[in-house]
Amino acid sequence: MEFSFGASATKILTTTGFSSLEGGDIIMLVVACLLLYLAIWKKFEPLLLLPIGFGCLLANIPMSMMASTDAGGLLNFFYQGIKHEILPPLIFLGVGALTDFGPLLANPATLLLGAAAQVGVYVTLIGAVLLGFNMHEASAIGIIGGADGPTSIFIASKLAPHLLAPIAVAAYSYMSLVPLIQPPIMRLLTTEKERKIKMAQLKPISQTVKILFPVVVTIVCCLMLPGVTPLLGMLMLGNLFRESGVTARLHETSETHLINIVTILLALAVGSSMTADSFLRLETLKIIVLGLLAFCIATAGGVLFGKLMCKMTGGRVNPLIGSAGVSAVPMAARVSQKVGAEADSSNFLLMHAMGPNVAGVIGSAVAAGVFISLFGDIPAVTEPHAAIADVIGTVEPGIKAAIAQVADVAAGVN
Amino acid sequence: MEASFLAAVYVSILAITVIFIVLVILIFTIQALVKLIPYKAPPPAPARPQTASSASGDQDDHVAAITATLAMHMGKSPSEFRIVNISQP
What we know:
Strand content of chain B: under 5%
Largest interface: A-B, 44 and 30 residues
Shape of chain A: globular
Number of domains of chain B: 2
Shape of chain B: elongated
Oligomer: heterodimer
Strand content of chain A: under 5%
Structural class of chain A: mainly alpha
Number of domains of chain A: 1
Number of helices of chain B: 2
Order of helices and strands of chain A: HHHHHHHHHHHHHHHHHHHHHHH
Order of helices and strands of chain B: HH
């Protein structure tokens, strides 16, 4: 082979990323560095913003084949986990394994605070429609108000995949800003006297109830809103690992290694979707503003409903715990504790706020389920095992008959 | 735009109603569960005498391991001697 130094040098130069670097890529590299800065130096949700920022960095290096849309690229494989709705439910499995529903079971009325905080989702949905988004997009944007990253990603990937990157970044950014966003709203909507209310100690709950709870929630919620089953079902499975006491290894794996591994994959995949084409748009700015609105209204909704409960119970509920209904476990509960302790340092609201906090996780999952029921492509066919039926339909008739025969025999045995 | 706005309002009202219905059902279910299966405080653990002969659980394992190691070291059968006490400094 003939070797020409000049031609080879030119070829190398033309295949460097610098030769293809455009203005949009440069801006996105700056955005990636900003996310890394916020994660490392400002400690804003570092477990998520750091891999998201680095994923964004990788995705915007030209010719690296690392964007989520580059078929065959490494991060494209990770992105399949979002596209096929695998990673967010696995995060929920870990969250379930980490969550103690005891405070919620001890005071089930706090579930209403988790529901009230979802008002942020719907006001934002209306706002998004007014800003020109269609209903699918508006639903995906509104769910940011649920303050639940995996749910936001799950809904965005289902209803508006082209908006996944800005929605995920907005959701996680505002979740990290909960300690800054919530306190002024909480102080504005409550009086000093209300903030000083001390709540009665929570009663202990039987371990059997804790074991039955995830099973009951799965049956009730997933029968009412089948679309939410991947999220809520996995959340409850993780919690059953925790409470059953017979799956210590699965519980330990779910709450540590599994959730960590999935977080890396999920965050890198989200970051890889932050390309100039998908991110540098006017819509991104609108989503960032709407996300902030969603968080503020969700907080206000929770606090106002807390005030209502305070009035109805004759002052036995501190309205500050209402703000914890926005999910964001356990940061929102910590904020309730902090603001309550500012008014009265002997007031301990943390465990009381954990009730609405975990109720917020269920509430935002149910809100997601409503959106999926309304706008998702849930199959109308009620035939059981439809997926297997599809497989059987593709094989030759002889094998199909054999499978049917085996199924009949199995049914006879059972 | 007006039609979209109205649709969004309807969806919001419907959705928040569904959420409250689902969560109210859950509240009643939890209340029923808590009433049917009340919390019972666990019985206090019986006090155990501090002797090796009545040791159980981890201490049994320690006695077995120490007995086996001593037997090997002294070249005797484990049945020829008995550890009667393990005390920690």
